[in-house]
Amino acid sequence: MVQADAKNKISDWIVSAALAGREEIEILAGICQRLVAAGVPVMRASVASNLLDPTIDARGVRWYRDRGGVEEAFPRTDDVAAEEEWKRSPFFALTESRQPMLRRRLDATYRRGEFPMLDGFQDAGATDYVAFATRIGRNVRLGEAEGIAASWTTDAPNGFTEQQIALLAGILPALTISMILWSTNRAARTLITTYLGSSAAERVLAGNIVRGRAEPIRAVVWYSDLVGFTRISDTTSAATVLALLNDYAEAQVEEIEGHGGHVLKFTGDGILAIFPHDDTPVACKRALDAAAGQRSRIVKLNAQRTAGGLPVTDTHVALHVGELLYGNLGSARRLDFTVLGPAVNEAARIESLCGSLEQPIIVSSAFAEAAGDARSLLVSLGRYAMKGVARPQELFTVELG
């Protein structure tokens, strides 16, 4: 009865903590504190699960009696040593076996060498280790996350009692629900940010999901594409083209986002981004710095790709300033969160002149007028007429030094 009462109290607390928004590390620490108070001498606990994330394969939280909680992310990697370490872990053995539990008494009967991690635990004075795997239904999974794995370690002289093992197993459903709630929330936010960008993602997650809901903003528009991309795609394999697109997109995106810009759309080999800021000269300077930074990155990238016998290219970038509508466009059930307005079309027209004017970066007269002190970096190219633009305008390039 005492054991059942402890299980119910701890399970109820886990659910309440999860609903209150406490993070995983707080929940695990709270569980361990309550287990210890209930007479379960936990010295270490660990919970981990796969994560639907483009750069992180899994995420875990651990609790230590002497130093509290820590978090750890496991990046997606081709590191052979890291893969081998994972394959020699108890969690790997547990998940591969499809069994609900794995237990090793770390006493005189323990066979060292099976799990290097547990060898270390035994050296540190641990006497018992138990791990559980909980799987959730396919229809509530995101990606490869089948559930969670949780482990508990003690240094009690005789290890865990059977009643204590039953208590740990008994709180597992509530623990699983709390951890899956967090991993699902984190995965959803990561996915939306990955595909929409941070600014649009924040707006969507805040509830802006209705077609036609948009707000006027003033921003710098970045429009770029790759030089000679059609020729490259016609003469190389699809895999080579995909790798090329990824390399040059990364060079641009990291500079755009690093300077406060937001990438809104990839259009084949092109990128549409904005630099919003209440102070337009600040936005202009950030856009210019991003344009200069991506050129430096591309010089290094081209050297690396040339050394590897891979095709190389360059970018054409147009920068413009204008009034935009920022919000949802599409059908009632299929939306795109983007910017609309003549400024976007004008930026595309300006970018199309980069080739004929032999300039990697061209900015509009509106950009030059709004650039503030950064105006000194701009050099006039003269006046040009552009298709779909009412009047010829003076265009500028950037003096990169």
Name the CATH superfamily classification of the largest domain.
Nucleotide cyclase, GGDEF domain
Instruction: Look at the helices and sheets and give the structural class.
Output: alpha+beta
Strand order of the largest sheet: 3-2-1-6-5-4
Helix content: 40-55%
Gyration radius over CA: 28 Å
Distance between the termini: 79 Å
User: Regions with pLDDT < 50 over 5+ consecutive residues?
Assistant: none
Share of β-strand residues: 25-35%
> Biggest β-sheet: count, sense, barrel?
6 strands, antiparallel
CATH topology of the largest domain: Alpha-Beta Plaits
CATH top level of the largest domain? Alpha Beta
Number of helices: 14
The overall number of domains is 2
* CATH architecture annotation of the largest domain: 2-Layer Sandwich
Could you say which overall geometry the principal axes of the C-alpha atoms support? elongated
Count of DSSP strands? 14
N-to-C series of helices and strands: HHEEEHHEHEEHHHEHHEEHEEHHEHEE
Rounded average pLDDT: 90
Explain what you see:
The protein has 401 residues and is an alpha+beta fold. It folds into two domains: 2-192, 2-Layer Sandwich (Beta-Lactamase); 197-398, 2-Layer Sandwich (Alpha-Beta Plaits). 43% of the residues lie in helices and 28% in strands. It has 14 helices and 14 strands. The chain has helices at residues 2-19, 24-37, 80-87, 90-97, 116-123, 162-170, 172-196, 198-205, 229-235, 238-258, 280-307, 342-351, 354-357, 365-370; strands spanning 42-50, 56-64, 68-75, 101-105, 128-135, 147-154, 214-226, 262-267, 270-276, 315-330, 335-340, 361-363, 378-384, 393-398. The chain has a six-stranded antiparallel β-sheet, with helices on both faces. Strands 7, 8, 9, 10, 11 and 12 form a six-stranded mixed β-sheet that branches. Strands 13-14 form a two-stranded antiparallel ribbon. A hairpin with a 2-residue loop joins β8 (262-267) and β9. α1 (2-19) runs antiparallel to α2 and α7 packs across α8 (198-205). The longest helix is centred in the last third of the chain and has 28 residues, at 280-307. The radius of gyration is 28 Å and the shape is elongated.
